[in-house]
Design brief:
Blueprint (H helix, E strand, L loop, with lengths): L1 H17 L1 H24 L4 H47 L1 H14 L4 H12 L2 H12 L9 H16 L4 H8 L6 H24 L3 H31 L3
Helix pairs in contact: 2-3, 2-7, 2-9, 2-10, 3-4, 3-6, 3-7, 3-8, 4-5, 4-6, 8-9, 9-10
Length: 243
């Protein structure tokens, strides 16, 4: 019973790891865009309530848009793969000698020669599904996406909203119960921590240096916030405080 439970937990963890890439990049976009909205509102000296409204509008609208885009992109790739797969099945069934010659060329280029080459070609061409799979991989350089487009979109949406909510937390707290702290400063600190964590997860996904990945993520968020802040300040002076 215990082994069965451990096996189920391992499967669930594996499923989470499978969609970690979507979670990471959805989280980065969520934190960057929402923090930019908050920074822009702060630069324009907007009221807390307005910043919260703008922040949540961005969080939900952009999160939904990004998740739909991720879903449609994955679905389109699957449909494109299926279209070319159907073409390869037709060619295998209708012009087998041409397709067999292509398999021979592919494996000859890999270094197979003589009888070994012919044996490999015979083995592959004896199984239609294997034959088509080899043509998809080696001729068209296409790999089938095994992840669900719906789950890709869902992972993107969940991470965008969860991580993107962090820049709004202190403002929401202040709105319901006024606090005597520097709201933007603490928002920046919490968002910076979110960037650190997501940046580290990005290094896990891409198998790159953790320090470099964290630095890139934090710098990206900082640049977006600075641009938004100064744009907000400029627009406030132009529209709200004209000289």
């Amino acid at each position: 019973m215990k082994e069965k439970t451990l096996h189920q937990e391992s499967q669930r963890f594996g499923a989470l790891q499978e969609y970690l890439r979507e979670f990471v990049y959805g989280g980065i976009d969520g934190a960057v865009t929402t923090f930019a909205v908050v920074a822009g509102g702060f630069g324009a000296n907007l009221d807390t309530g307005i910043i919260i409204i703008l922040g949540f509008a961005n969080l939900l609208a952009d999160g939904f848009s990004m998740s739909v885009g991720a879903y449609l992109s994955a679905k389109s790739e699957n449909e494109n793969y299926k279209k070319h797969q159907d073409i390869e099945y037709w060619e295998v069934e209708n012009i087998p000698e041409t397709e067999r010659a292509e398999i021979r060329e592919i494996y000859a280029a890999k270094g197979f020669k003589g009888e070994l080459l012919e044996n490999v070609v015979d083995q592959i061409c004896s199984d239609k599904d294997l034959w088509v799979a080899e043509m998809m991989k080696d001729e068209l350089n296409m790999m089938k996406e095994i992840k669900s487009p719906f789950r890709i979109g869902l992972a993107t949406l969940v991470s965008f909203i969860l991580v993107g909510f962090i820049p709004l937390m202190v403002y929401l707290w202040d709105f319901f119960s006024e606090v005597q702290i520097n709201i933007f400063l603490w928002t920046s600190v919490l968002t910076g921590m979110a960037f650190l964590i997501v940046g580290w997860l990005k290094s896990v996904v891409n198998q790159t240096s953790a320090l470099r990945s964290i630095a890139e993520t934090v710098l990206l968020g900082l640049l977006a916030a600075l641009v938004a802040y100064y744009v907000g300040d400029l627009l406030e002076n132009f529209f709200l405080n004209p000289s």
